[in-house]
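request received
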Amino acid sequence: MAKVLVVDDEPNIVLSLEFLMQQAGFDVETAEDGETALAQVEAAPPDLILLDISLPGISGFDVLEQLRQHPRYARLPIVMLTAHGREVEREKGLALGADDYVTKPFSTQALVEKVKSLLVEDA
Amino acid sequence: MRTDSVVLTAAFGYLALLFVIAAWGDRRAEQGRSVIGSPTVYALSIAVYCTAWTFYGSVGRAAEFGPSFLLIYLGPTLAMLLAPLLIRKMVRIASTQRITSIADFISARYGKSSSLGALVALIALIGVTPYIALQLKAITLSHAVLVNYPATAEFRLADESFWSDKSFWVALVLAVFIILFGTRHLDASERHEGMVAAIAFESLIKLVAFLTVGVFVVFVLFNGPADLFRQVAERPELAGALSLDAVPGGAVGWVGTLLLAFLAFLTLPRQFQVLVVENVDERHLKRASWLFPLYLVAINLFVIPIAMAGLLLAGDGDPDSFVLTLPLAAGLEGIPLLVFIGGLSAATGMVIVETIALSTMVSNQLMMPLLLRSRRLHLSSQGELARWLLGIRRVAIVLILLLGYLYHALIGDSYSLVTIGLVSFVGVTQFAPAMLIGMYWRGATRVAATLGLLAGFATWCYTLLVPGFAQSGWIDASFLSEGPLGLGWLRPYALFGLEGFDIYSHALLWSLMANLGLLVGVSLFTRQSPVEQTQAALFTEAMNPGLQHTSLWRGQTTWGELQSLLNRYLGTLTTSRILADRRDAPTDGDPAPPALIARAEQALSGALGSASARVLINSVVRGEALDREAILSILDTTSQTLEYNRRLEQKSEELARIGEELRAANERLRELDRLKDEFVAMVSHELRTPLTSIRAFAEILRDSRDLPEEKRVHFLDVVVLESQRLSRLIEEILDLARLESGRLTLNPQRLDLVALTRQSVDAVHRLQEDRGVALEVDIPLDEAPVIGDPDRLEQVVINLLDNAGKFADDEAPCVRLHLARHKEGYRLSVEDNGPGIAADERERVFEKFHQIKRHGGSGKATGRPRGSGLGLPISRGIVAHLGGRLWVEEAPFLKGACLVMELPRAPDVV
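response:
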């Protein structure tokens, strides 16, 4: 069963994403900041990461950048989540190697579809 | 050989030669081959300064007062050294303004005032008369000495009737001679080239004559200067008389005489005539400025030797006649005649130029204004007024010489030559303040100049002229020794008790003081008329190149009117020359161009003086003849340019400053814009966060119909909570917006902060307790009256307690509230035992959306809600609105963060 790592500092958003992913049939792990997320990836690499940008400590971009530098995670599907709707951030995210970029608030169905398709692609 | 007929023949022969030279000079001038276009001729003509007074009187003064006579020549030397500065400007003014005399000069400077011109002419007439008398005296005296020697030359004028007095006939002969070559024609420029040529020739003759006597005395009568000085040294009483100590009046006398000679050299009418009016080229001043002083040195070279020799050989004779008596005593015939001719040339040269200058003044400044005022004459004289003018001048010449004779006859015997000369000198120096100050100070006014002149002239009359009459016995001598009516402080030679001066320095001091004092003092309190302003500007700015070649006229007249005006005053020949224009045959009705009007006025000025010319031009020109604004604007150009540059500099500095300010303002605006963008981004971010949860759970609830009841309730709770959070957030953002725009409506009232604080503590107590936060409250007060909005203040206190709870230590969270009196208000502090806030972070916590990072966070959710980052900025805004402060400091007890609120105490209720 594919494993999804949800990284967000908003407990209720984590709660909703956790429920959605589980309902879609994935294993879910959560982290509330970047450092924890990196440690968890290192410990048990997920199949996909839902990564919030505004995090306490290092930002989602930092996490993305560090992972992409590592050959092992170069192709790990990462979906950026952000409450910032700015185009520059979207471009920055995509340039840094994010597979997709989802603006909050998001459509739950669309997000689930997106995650599924990325995991299928990956497989 | 010394018979009357021989002497008379020589004298008339000499005068005839002068006439020929003058006629030749005029002829050459008409042919356009001027003989005076040479700086040497110019310098020699200036030597008209050396009159019979120099020729005979210097030796007399040297014999009496030692080398003090030299001061009379040091003054002009000084003036010539200053020629490039001073005289050049005078010449420039005179040529642009067509000045005809010093009276015209002063009149023109002070708004072409005819009354001032008349005053100057009158003073000049009175002041110079003694000087002319002196020349007449010299001629008759030298003639008598020459013819009667060895019999004493003394003769009593008063004993004879005037027709048997040779001076009278000398005066008449000179008058005829001067009329013959001084008023042959009325020239537009009032220049007398022939006269200048004759004067230059005379200067040569008198120099040669004097040097001849000098050489004869030193090298024939004595064996060179060494012999002469040795012999003088053997006579101590002579040596003493020739030392510097013999100067009358001591040091003051030296300075006084030097100043006197300096000023008189510039203001004597004849000097002004040759120096300024007759100058044909400014550049001539260059050579004259050293050649003329050299001439003075040459002519004074033998003065002291001749005086010494005279005292040695003819001790009891009249020192003024030594020049003649020394060669006569040696039995010579030729040299005495040469000396006589030399003296004659010195005297006639002076009389000719002086009389011409004076007659010009009399006709232009005294008579013309009167004639112009009489309308009958002005209108009836359709013919040439030029003839009238010449007639007036001829009569004036005769009258001036007769006046000189009269003075000579009345008091000529009482004074030596030098004394008479010095009286005149002091008289004419009265023109110096008005002339010199007027050339450099634009503010000198006509009224002031007139008053100054009158006062100076009156003082001169009282201190020198009247005493002269007293000494001659025409007034009781007690007037001199005891003062008028026995008033000692009014003694003319010791006015106001000023004693110890020689009479000339004394008179010079008082008269110049009165003159100058009134000129400057009154100028400060009087105003100039427009014409005066213009003229003052034209004079003071004469060297300003902007004034050249500019048409300053804007009045209107026709060609015909101008022509008939000029015809009337200058004759048809001169008129046609002036009006000669490239245009072919202009008709009478054509308008005259401004330049032509200017030329016409200049031509008339040259003939009639500036004041009369102005009256005449105004009579035919409609509108303001002189474009005052144009002149003033030209004059101001230089100063304006400077001013402009200064302003430009100022402007560029200002621009740089404004640019800097704009840059800073722009920077600030950019910063504000950036902050606004950031704020909007943050607001949107903060709003999206709860919205995300709401939407996500709403969709989950919609899409997942088979949710367990327990989950459904939980998710619905989240939706409700997040909705509340969203509303709260919106409320806070609106609060903040209101605070920042100043539109926050508070409801201030007197309240008890103690009660309010306790109420707030109660509100959060349960929540804090639930989270395990230990809340310690320390309020050692019964009451704390402040002015505030109760709801808002409670919001602040709750926010502070909330924050403290959030940032308190994870393991054993503890919050302490303390409220106490502080100075004129109350201090409420809330501290926690958390990690605290670094010093450089303390102000940043009040920035909008600033989220404090939790250090050493455990990584798992603590269950405590996150703040929006707006609570503290809003609290600070509210407290500030209530006149208090809110800040962060080191927690004194719990070592975490400490937020302190200070509010002023409410005024006591009466």
